[in-house]
Q: What sequence folds into this?
C-alpha cells in the first residue's frame, strides 16, 4: 500500500513486531465477532451512517441483524472516503477473503455468510489473534467485574473508574460498589476502604492499570479532609432521588479521583488519563455516538496531580492536535507523564501523522506508548494497527532513516519500543 | 504547476468540473471588475500593503485609482511571498495576458491599460465566468436588498443576518427593517413577523441560504418568552441614543438568532455559520482589514442549537485549524452539521492542506462543501479555486489514489461532490 | 542530510548567508563552552535525562563535571530520537571531530578530553563563530547589567524586563533597581524615572531591543493614573515580607509593562514579546526545566497594546502551533507585529515546518524574523540554525521553487531576509 520502497521495507519489519495492545474494550468472554453485525455495530459505522443520513430505525433491537448490516452497507457509499471505511474493507479482505475494491449493499448477503462461516470456526479467536500478531490486550473493566472466566495473561484487566468518580451519587453505582467491596460509602474514610478493596481485587486478578476518561473542564485537586467530610455529608443527606448539589458532587469527584491516584501509588499501577471528552453532546445520537470534545482544555489542570504523585506513571490520551502539543511538552518535562496512543477523534491519519512526528522528535523514546486499538472486537486490532504502522513507517523513513539520523534496524528498534516494549515496561507485564 | 504527474492528471480532471460557488460577496449588478483598482482594492491587498508599511493615504477616496494601484504595486515586493500575491499574478496571467514572472510597480501602466481594455468588452462578465468554469455563485445580501435586476439562477441570493442579530439596537437598522417588512420591531412577536416577511421575500426571489458571521464568544441558547419579552422592553425603553445594556442586548441577539434558525426550519433553508471573528480588533486598519480571530472558541457553544434544529442543515466555516479539528468531529457526529470551505485566515495552502486531509479522512463525503471563493469580484474565483484544486489534487493523489484506496476516476468523483454536487444538494439548487 | 537535490542546493546557498542571531542567552564574558559540562548542562539535556529517568543527584554542585556528563550520556540512549539529541551529535561532529553515528556513555572520556582540548584553544570563540557563520548575537541582559567588558557590536545588548514587570515587589529587585538607577520606586512617576534611566543606560551601550516573556493569562492594559497611584501605595504599604495583594500587584505589573512600551516608543526600540509560558509548573524539575505552556491564550489580549503603540515594533514569539496561526494573522494585519523565531517547545521540526509554511504563505516577507538560537553557549547556534535551515530549504523547494512561484535565486533572497536582513532592519543594527 505504500509507494515508497524504504517505507515499505520498514512497514514489513514493523508489522512483524508482536503487539501489546494497551487499551481496548474487548469482552474477554466473547472477544471475537460472531456475526457481521458485531463488526458493523461498532459505533464508528452506526454514527457515520446516521450522520450521513440513515435514521435510527435499523439500529432498533427488534431489527434482524442481517438487515441492520444491509442498512449500514447501503449508506456506506456516503462515507467510503473515511479511514473507518478503510478499516472495514481491510477486515473484509484479511478475514473474510473479500476480493473487491469497494463494499456495497450488494455484497451484504455474500459477506454475511462468509463472515458467519469463518466466525463459527472453533478457533476463530486464535486465528484473529495470530493474523493480527497481538499477544496481549488490555481490557476496560467495570469496578465490579468479577474478572473470572478468562486468561488474564492474554486479556489483561484494567480498572475503569469513570463511574466511581463521576456517578457515585447514583444509587445503583453505590449499591454495586457496596456489593463488590462490602463497604457502604458515606464518608472519605469508607471511600478509601472501598477503593482499597477494589485495588486488592483487581491487582489480585492481574490488573495492570487504572483508567478514566475525563471531561475537558476537570481539574483535580487534593481536597482537605474537613471539606471532603462535609461534602460527603451533604451528599449523603441529599438522598438519592436527584443529583446532589454541584459543589458537593464536584468535591466528592475530586476526592475519589485523588484517592484513586493514591491507590495507584500504593499498588504501583499506572493511571491512564483520557482527557477531554464531553459526554452526550449530541444527545439524539446513536449509542456511543454522542460524545465530542472541546479544544479549550489544558494539561495545566493536572499540574498539581503530576507534582503530587511522582511515583505514579500517567499515560495520557488526548483528543486534539492542540492538546497533543501540550502533551509532547508535558511528557518531555514530567518524568511521570507518558504519551499514550491516538485517541478517538485524533485517530485518523492526518492527525496521527503530525502528532506522531512531534512526539518522536521531542519525547524520550522510552516514554511513548505508540498505539492502542480501543477495539470492542478483536477483528479491529489488525486494520487500526496497520493504519498506525503505515504512518509510523513513513515518518521513520522520512524523518529518521533518509536524513541519516538512524539506520533501518535502529528505526525498527524504535518502533518496537512504541508497539511493545514501552508498554511492557510501563505497565509491568 | 504541480511536479507530480498523478496530481497533475487529477488537477486537469478536477479543473473541468463546473463550479457552484456557495459563498461570495459579488455584487450581481456589477459582478466583474471595471478597472485594476477593483482588483487591487480587495482588502487582501490593501491590508497587506498597509501591514508591510504603506500608509493609508493612497486609499483615500480623492486619490486617482490608477495611482492607488501604483502605490499598492510599489509595496507588493514586500509581500510577493504570499498566497494572495500569487492570486494576483494568476489573474494577470489568465485574464490580462501578463507574461512576466513577477508584477512590479513598473508594470502598472501597461497592466492598467490592458485590464481596462479587457474589462470594457461588453461580454467581460461572461468571459470571466466561462474561463473560471463557474455556473452559479451565491451572494451575500443585506436583509433589505430588493434582489432585483439580476438573474437569480446565476447569482443566488443569500440572506445575511449579522446586522439583525448584533445591530438591531441601531436606529438605522430598525428603520431599514421597518421599511423592508412594514413591521416596527418592539417585542419578540413582532420580530417573528418581520423575520417571516424577510424569509418570504428572500425565498420568493430564489434565496437558498441564510448566513451569519459570529464572534468567538457567541453561544446561542433559546431564550424563554418571558425573558425575551422583558429584554425587548428594556431595550426599547432605553431609546436609541446609545447601545442598550449588554444583558438585554445579548438576550435580544440570542432571540433573533434563534428566530432565524426557526425560520430556516420553516422555509427549509440551510443556515451558514461563520464562526470566530472579532470585528475591529485593529481599529486603525484599512477598510475590511481590521478583524481577527481568537483561537479560544468551541463548537460546544452550538450544541444546543444543533440538537434543537435537526431539520436545519448548518454549513460551518471556521477560522483556525484547531477549530477545524472540532468541525471534523462535529460533522462526523451531527447529521445536520456540514463542513464549508476554508475561510479567510485559514484560506492559505498550509492550513487548507491539513484541514482538507482531516475532513476527507473523517467526514462523510456527502457532507463536505469543499470551497467557496468569498470573492467581491468575479476575477478572484479562478485563482482561489485553482489554489484549492491544486491542493485537492495533491491530497487525493497522496492519500487516496497512490495508496490504492480509490481509482483516479473515483477520486475525481469525490472532487465533484466537494466542488459542485454537495452544494447543489445541500442548498437545493 | 537532505535527500532532495533541489532542497540540498538551496540548503547550500542558505547556509552561506551570514547570520544575525536576534535572541540568545549568551554570556558575552564567557560566550563559548569551557568543558563538555557546559554543553550538556544545557537544560534541554538535563531535563530530558531527568524526564527519562535520571534522578537529580548528578546535577548537584558537588558532583565532578565529568561525572555529570557521564551520567547524562548514560541516559541519552533513552532520548536519542529527539531533535535535541541530534543537536548534540552535530556539535560533536562539527566541533570535536566525533566520527561515530551515536554518542554513548562509552564515548564520555574521549569526548570530554577532545572537547577540553579544543575549547582551551585561545581562539575557540572565534573558531565557533566562524564555523557557525554568525556575525552578531543578541543577548538577554538583566536590567542592572553594567554591559561592560565586551564588544557590543558583536554581542548586542537587549534589556530583559521580566523581573521589573512581575517581581518588582521583591525587595532584592527593588534594591537592584535603586542601585542601577538611583531611584527608589514608590509611585508611577518614580517608576518612569527609573525606567528612563535604564533605557538611557542600555541604548547608550548599544542595546537594540527590550524583551519579556509573559504568562498565558497576561493581558496588558493601560492603567489610569489614579488607579496606578493607589496600587503603588497599597503595594508599598504592604511592606516586603510577603507578596502584595494580587490586585495591586497585577495593576503595578500592567503599569510597568505599559511604561516599558512607552519607553520603547521614545527610545525607538522594538519590544520582543515571548508569549505563553507558565513558570515552575513542574516545581520538582531540574533548573530551567520546570516551565510549560497553556495552549489557551490569545493574541487578542494584546490588541489594545498593538493599537496604542503603532510606532513600536513587536516581534512576537509563541509556544504552540495554535497560537502561531493567530500570530500569522496578527502579523498579516497589524503593521507593528512581526513573527519572531520558533520558540522553545515549538522549536522542533514537526512544528517549525508547519508554522514556517504558514508564515511564508501569509505574512509579508519583510515582517518575518526567521529564527534565533536562544542559546546559552555559542556551540548551539550551529546545530539549531542548521535544523531550521534544512526545513527552510525543504519548504522553499516544495512550496516556491518547484511550483514555479520563484527561482532558486529568489528563494535564497527570501531566506536572506529571514536569516539576516529583516532583523538588521527591524532592530536597526
A:
Amino acid at each position: 500500500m505504500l509507494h515508497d520502497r524504504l517505507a515499505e521495507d520498514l512497514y514489513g519489519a514493523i508489522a512483524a513486531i508482536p503487539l501489546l495492545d494497551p487499551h481496548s474494550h474487548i469482552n474477554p468472554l466473547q472477544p471475537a465477532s460472531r456475526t457481521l453485525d458485531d463488526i458493523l455495530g461498532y459505533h464508528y459505522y452506526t454514527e457515520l451512517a446516521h450522520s450521513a443520513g440513515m435514521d435510527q430505525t435499523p439500529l432498533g433491537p427488534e431489527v434482524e441483524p442481517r438487515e441492520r448490516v444491509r442498512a449500514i452497507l447501503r449508506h456506506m457509499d456516503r462515507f467510503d472516503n473515511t479511514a473507518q471505511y478503510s478499516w472495514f474493507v481491510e477486515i473484509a479482505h484479511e478475514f473474510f477473503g473479500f476480493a473487491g475494491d469497494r463494499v456495497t449493499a450488494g455484497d451484504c448477503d455474500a459477506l454475511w455468510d462468509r463472515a458467519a462461516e469463518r466466525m463459527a470456526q472453533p478457533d476463530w479467536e486464535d486465528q484473529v489473534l495470530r493474523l493480527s500478531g497481538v499477544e496481549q490486550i488490555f481490557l476496560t473493566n467495570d469496578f465490579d467485574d468479577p474478572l473470572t472466566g478468562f486468561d488474564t495473561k492474554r486479556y489483561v484487566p484494567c480498572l475503569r473508574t469513570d463511574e466511581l468518580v463521576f456517578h457515585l451519587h447514583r444509587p445503583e453505582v453505590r449499591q454495586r460498589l457496596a456489593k463488590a467491596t462490602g463497604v457502604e460509602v458515606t464518608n472519605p474514610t469508607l471511600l478509601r476502604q472501598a477503593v482499597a478493596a477494589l485495588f486488592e481485587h483487581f491487582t489480585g486478578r492481574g490488573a495492570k492499570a487504572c483508567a478514566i476518561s475525563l471531561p475537558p473542564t476537570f481539574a483535580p485537586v487534593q481536597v482537605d479532609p474537613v471539606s471532603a467530610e462535609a461534602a460527603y455529608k451533604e451528599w449523603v443527606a441529599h438522598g438519592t432521588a436527584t443529583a446532589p448539589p454541584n459543589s458537593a458532587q464536584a468535591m466528592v469527584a475530586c476526592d475519589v479521583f485523588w484517592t484513586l491516584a493514591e491507590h495507584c501509588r500504593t499498588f504501583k499501577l499506572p493511571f491512564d488519563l483520557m482527557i477531554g471528552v464531553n459526554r452526550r453532546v449530541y444527545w439524539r445520537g446513536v449509542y456511543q455516538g454522542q460524545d465530542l470534545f472541546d479544544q479549550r482544555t489544558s494539561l495545566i489542570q493536572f499540574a498539581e496531580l503530576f507534582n503530587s504523585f511522582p511515583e505514579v506513571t500517567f499515560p495520557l490520551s488526548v483528543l486534539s492536535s492542540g492538546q497533543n502539543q501540550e502533551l509532547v511538552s508535558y511528557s518531555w518535562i514530567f518524568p511521570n507523564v507518558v504519551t499514550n496512543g491516538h485517541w478517538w477523534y485524533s485517530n485518523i491519519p492526518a492527525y496521527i501523522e503530525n502528532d506522531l512526528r512531534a512526539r518522536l522528535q521531542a519525547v524520550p523514546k522510552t516514554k511513548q506508548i505508540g498505539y492502542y486499538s480501543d477495539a470492542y472486537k478483536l477483528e479491529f486490532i489488525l486494520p487500526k494497527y496497520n493504519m498506525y504502522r503505515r504512518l509510523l513507517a513513513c515518518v521513520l523513513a522520512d524523518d529518521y532513516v533518509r536524513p541519516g539520523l538512524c539506520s533501518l534496524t535502529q528505526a525498527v528498534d524504535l518502533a518496537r519500543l512504541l508497539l511493545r516494549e514501552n508498554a511492557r515496561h510501563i505497565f509491568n507485564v
